[in-house]
Each structure stands twice: as structure tokens, then as C-alpha cells.
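We emphasize that the prediction below concerns an isolated chain of 290 residues; any contacts that depend on oligomerization or on bound cofactors are therefore not represented. The input was used exactly as deposited, without trimming of termini.
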Amino acid sequence: MDSKAHVGKLRVIYIMGTGRSGSTILDMALGSTPGSVSTGELVSLEMVMNETNEPDERSAKEFCSCESPVRSCTLWSTVWQEFSKKCSVEEYRRSHFLYERGWSPPFAFIGRFLRLKSFTRHVEMTNHLLSSISTATGSKTIIDSSKLTSRAVVYVELQRYGVEVLFINIVRDLDGYIESWRRKRDPGNLQAISPKYTFTRQVWDTLNWICATALSTVVGRVLRAPYTLVRFKELMSRPTGVISRLSGFASLDASDVCQKIAKGNALSPGHVIAGNRAKFSPIIKIMETS
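Result of the prediction step, given as a C-alpha cell string:
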């Protein structure tokens, strides 16, 4: 593996899939490699920075993994200030609302196919945002686990600006996905259906899993960028094997990360936006299991 092959070239490793699939842990592991930075669900940055209310301490989205509110985090406030010098925040807010929400895949595909001015401009502003992150962190490889398929459409267009884009699709089986949501919404109840996790909620989560999994798989394979699949069970049972494989896929030096995992040592959470609340731990451990 040539870990120096991409020195000087900005790269994005984009993690797609569903929530509750281990994407935050994978993001942190890859972001712990030299020259890389873990951002978490970067799509949330615009929404958090434009929020006018006081940060909600119960919200993982509004707090960085350094435990500071994202808006006052040293890193993200610096990034946003630098980005604001290059782009209109209001213009970015409008295009972000159109092209980077749950409903956005059709608009993103249409914008890309028709080369709409608004879509092209949004891609340009996204490039400025990534450049601001690279400048603030000194890292050339940015890990983003936003998972939205519409964001993948935006990212693939960054290749026109010389940015290298790679896609990782992380998939968790439906039963595990539903169980994870049930435990999150009603952690004290062992019943599959409860007052806090109703049948209607389970149907909604099932439909969300079907749509997100199908879209991520199709988009990842259709868009012209390197693509690989990771299964949640494999990541949890053989983390060093998965990280080693992904390091080869993305030309990263993950030797130190794999050693830490194998020894049960900790990985630093860094500055992660949104994602799983495990990011708030002082250290993140991924334990190898037999």
C-alpha cells in the first residue's frame, strides 16, 4: 500500500447506508489514520451553525465529540468562519435545503443531469467547505458519514475540481437495525413492541431501512467513483480485518489503528458532528471478538 500516493490531493471518503449501522465508529477509525480527519455527519454542520436557539444538551447533533457545542467548538467555528469568507452562508443554506435533505435524491439527480446552475453552485460551495476543513485540520483526507444518498451525488461532482471521492456502503441486517432503534427509543423495555416503540414506528423504521439500503447500494454502484461494501456484523466481529481491507481500498496507513484495536486500546473521538452518542466518551474502544 502506498500511503503517500495521495499527498497534496484532497480526498473524501463518504460512508453511506442507514443510521444505527456502525457508521460513526467506522468514521472515527478511518479518521484516526495519518493525514485523515473524522467529521461525523458533516451534512449537519450547516443546520447546526444556522440554528438560533441555545444548544440542547440532549442532542448529539448540536454538540461536537469534544463536548463543546458545535457552534463554539474551536475547530468548527474556525472552519465556518473560513467558509463564510468564500461563500454566502444564506445561499448555501438555500441550496443545502434543496439538495441535501432526506427528500433530496431526485433533485440532486436532476440537478446533476441537467447541469442546473443552482446544483453546480452548490457543488462549488461544498468544495470550499471541504477546503476550509482541510486548511483548519491540515488533513487531506476527509471522512464523512452523513449517509445521505443525495450527498453522494454532490460529492461525485467534486471530481471536476480534482477531489478524489470514494464510497463505503455500510449495511446492517434489518433485525439488528430494528432492535437497535427499539433499544434507543425504549431502553428499559425488553418487549419488541412497547408504548414508546409502537407497531407504526416499527413499520416506519422498516420502510426507512429498505429505502436507505436500496438507494445507497444503487447510487454507490451507479456513480463513477470507487465503491466498496461493509457489513455491520463483520465490522463488529472482525474490526481489524475490515479496517485493514478498507485501508487498502482507500490507500490509508491503518497499521497503528489496527494495533490499537487488536490490543483493546482506545481511539480518540476527535471532532465528530452528530452520529452516535458514543462519540461523547473520552475514548472510543473497538474490541476484537472471536
